[in-house]
Target: quinol--cytochrome-c reductase
Amino acid sequence: MLSRIASQTARRSVKQLSQQTRFASTKPAFAGHSNKQATAVTAGIIGATALTYMYVDASANMADEGLHPPSHPWPHSGPLDTFDHASIRRGYQVYREVCSACHSLDRIAWRNLIDVSHTEDEVKAMAEEFEYQDGPDDNGEMFMRPGKPADYMPKAYPNEEAARAANAGALPPDLSLITKARHGGEDYVFALLTGYVDAPGGVEVREGLNYNPYFPGGAIAMAQTLFDGVVEYEDGTPATASQMAKDVCTFLAWAAEPEHDERKKMGMKATVITVGLVALSVYLKKFKWAPLKTRKIVYK
Ligand code: HEC
Model:
């Protein structure tokens, strides 16, 4: 009897001991918890400081960096959307009749327009309207000849100095990649073209510059160029200033990324094929593993 009680006590104390060790072993875990809390609090403080800094910084630099352009639902902005090619065609007309007076488009050749916005015959006829220097001929002379589809878009000015001299010292940038070169892309260019307003009270704009809140600094050497009815569209679309801005921005977005439509088509094909292959491999894996996973091992 006594010995049984003794053994029970011994068992109990062993149990207590093991409980103690269990609690003892959980202690470091509690310490880890408070460590995590400290990390979270530190991260929170750093994050809040960064946000405050960014916000204060952004509002302080609004005039320096220009107004943030509103974003528009471009017909080509979705993952499966292609360019509106009728709009590219109208945009080319706006570029040719308005912007090309000052801006070059160095990376686009006439042939790039074929089957994008114009037919081959139209492109040939348009290129022929411009004279290009070629040569030397058999006598070593350079000569002028009409343009060919392989020629690049003619320049607005012969050199940078001439461009600056004609534009109050400012250089009109090449527009080939402008939608990629500016924060906001076509939204920015659209906002810039349609955003001319009178300078607010207290803001002085130097002679030869124009006030535009979307341009960093607010004073731009380019005057407003798009007014209702500046061009006459052949397809009868009313040529309002915003319509022309939209079309020329679509054209410039195409110029900066002529492979855009093809890229999205490739992306769609790649996604469809990859999803198919993944589904197939999941099926195949299950098929091959099924006998192993459903097998029952019985020991006797
Ligand atoms: C009369 C000449 C002239 C015409 C026409 C003109 N621009 Fe400009 N453009 C300029 C000049 C000059 C600048 C440089 C402005 C500056 O740096 O202050 C400029 C700058 C720009 C910029 C760059 C702004 C930036 O963020 O640096 C864009 C985009 C632009 N023009 C688009 C166009 C488009 C599109 C058209 C046609 C609808 C057009 N421009 C017509 C002279 C012109």
Strands lie at 131-134, 143-146, 210-211, 219-220.
